[in-house]
Each structure stands twice: as C-alpha cells, then as structure tokens.
Automatic annotation (TrEMBL):
<dbReference type="InterPro" id="IPR052018">
    <property type="entry name" value="PHP_domain"/>
</dbReference>
<protein>
    <submittedName>
        <fullName>Phosphoesterase</fullName>
    </submittedName>
</protein>
<dbReference type="GO" id="GO:0035312">
    <property type="term" value="F:5'-3' DNA exonuclease activity"/>
</dbReference>
<dbReference type="InterPro" id="IPR004013">
    <property type="entry name" value="PHP_dom"/>
</dbReference>
<feature type="domain" description="Polymerase/histidinol phosphatase N-terminal">
    <location>
        <begin position="3"/>
        <end position="66"/>
    </location>
</feature>
<dbReference type="InterPro" id="IPR016195">
    <property type="entry name" value="Pol/histidinol_Pase-like"/>
</dbReference>
<dbReference type="Pfam" id="PF02811">
    <property type="entry name" value="PHP"/>
</dbReference>
<dbReference type="InterPro" id="IPR003141">
    <property type="entry name" value="Pol/His_phosphatase_N"/>
</dbReference>
<dbReference type="GO" id="GO:0004534">
    <property type="term" value="F:5'-3' RNA exonuclease activity"/>
</dbReference>
Length: 269
C-alpha cells in the first residue's frame, strides 16, 4: 500500500477537480488518498464516485486557533453528514466570504488594483481563500502576497476570521466518528512552530496523530517531530499536501505507512 493522507481539489484551494484526483493518484502509484479540502466536503462525492483503483478516505482540513496562532487540523474518516461538524464548517466558509471581501478592500486601500470580482473568478466557486487573493495580487505584479506587507497572518491586509479552538475541533472530529491529525505543525512557512508542550496538551485532548513527513518540514524537523510523537503516543503520518499546480509538490511525495493507517482506523470513535 502507498498512502497519502492530505490532498486538495478545486472544492477548496487546489487546482485539480476532485473527480480527476483518483486517476492522478493511481498514476502516482497510490492505493489510498485522503481528500482533505479546507473546511468543506464538497468534492468528496465526486472523488469517491471516480475512484476505482484508489481508496478515497473522507477528510477535511479545519482552520483552528491554537493559543494566538492559526493551525490546521486534519479530520480523517469523518462522517460528512454529521450535522454539528457540517454546521461549523458552513459557518467557517461563510465567514471566508466576509473576510475575503474585506481583505480585497484593504489591498485596494494599500494600492493594489484588484477587485472582489477578479478574486471570485479565480476561486471559480470554491470557498474564497487567501491563495485566491494572492493569485489576483500576482496577476498585477505583486509577488510577495504572503508577507506582512500584504496578507500574511497579522499583515497589513489581513482580517481576523471566525475560527474554532483546536481542542473544540478535535472534539468535533471525534464526535463525527473520525480521527484528528495535526497538519504540518512545524512547516517552514509557519510564523511559529507548534511546541512540544502544545502537542502534549492536544494529545491529552484526543489528538490521534501528527503530520511528520511533509514537504515543508525539513528532515531534521521531521526527525524531532517523530521523537515527540512517539513520546506522546501520537501516530506519525506523512502526506504531500497536494494542491495541483498551486504548489510544487506531487501526489505521494510524502506518505504514511500501512501500519499507521491501520492504527488510525482503529482510533475511530
């Protein structure tokens, strides 16, 4: 088995339609792929219907707040029809529209000649997100979108959003019959790494695993995370975090062992 537990489609901020992902996964040699679009299950039925050689794990990547920073939580094997989780995701998504519109306004106030209509066209029906605003900025020659100058967390054009606490998100994932895995906690793109103490607190709250092998986490970081995960009894997963053409990574670039996948299945509520 070759397993990738973190991938995105055009249902959120990926560039690959969900019905195409299973074929690309099979071509990459994968046997299991988790579709984990941001705060939505919208692509799941299309991906599942198109799956033949590849098992599609139902998943979602939830934007959360951990202390004073944003983190992302993967909910794997969740029931997409579980109403409390679906309702919370709907609230997060609708707030994205408000936030996105205000961020575009701030960008315009800072001199960027972009419009909400342009950003919505880039999103093409997907939940509005910062990557879509960044693409609009890049189209007018502004290539440093994800910096404090523009739309990085706390940047001049950033706008706070509705967000769950990570502990609450873990509880929702578990109530939906799934398992919670913390995504890329020490990515080089994060302003601050999730600390050992924070990981310990999340493990106490029911976190099942931590994404160790990830393209944005250098090997020494992965080695340390693997040690911490083992000490805390957390499962160590690996994933590509595939976004299609939006990121220079390919499906299966990092993978999860069959043993860890089996243990994740066993963790389900």
């Amino acid at each position: 088995m070759t397993i990738d537990l973190h991938a995105h489609s055009t249902a959120s901020d990926g560039t690959t339609p969900p019905e195409v992902l299973p074929r690309l996964a099979a071509e990459a040699g994968l046997t299991v792929l988790a579709l984990t679009d941001h705060d939505t299950f919208a692509g799941l039925s299309a991906a599942s219907a198109a799956a033949a050689e590849v098992e599609i794990v139902p998943g979602v990547e939830i934007s959360c707040r951990l202390d004073d920073a944003e983190v992302h939580l993967l909910g794997l094997f969740v029931d997409p029809l579980f109403a409390p989780l679906a309702d919370e995701l709907e609230l997060i998504r609708t707030d994205r529209v408000r936030r996105g519109a205000r961020m575009v306004e701030r960008c315009r106030e800072l001199g960027a000649p972009i419009t909400l209509a342009q950003v919505e066209a880039i999103a093409a029906g997907a939940p509005l997100g910062r990557p879509h605003i960044a693409a609009a900025l890049a189209a007018v020659g502004i290539t440093d979108a994800f910096t404090p100058n523009w739309i990085a967390d706390g940047g001049r054009a950033d706008v706070p959003k509705h967000v769950l606490s990570t502990v609450d998100a873990i509880a929702l994932v578990r109530a939906a019959g799934g398992v919670a895995v913390l995504a890329h906690p020490r990515s080089v793109k994060r302003r601050a790494a999730v600390s050992d103490a924070q990981l310990a607190a999340l493990a106490e709250a029911g976190l099942a695993g931590v994404e160790v092998d990830h393209p944005e986490q250098p090997v020494p970081v992965r080695d340390r995370l693997r040690e911490v995960a083992a000490d805390l009894g957390l499962l160590a997963t690996g994933s590509s975090d595939f976004h299609g053409d939006r990121k220079p990574v390919h499906l299966g670039e990092c993978t999860t062992s069959p043993e860890v996948l089996a243990a994740l299945r066993a963790h389900r509520s």
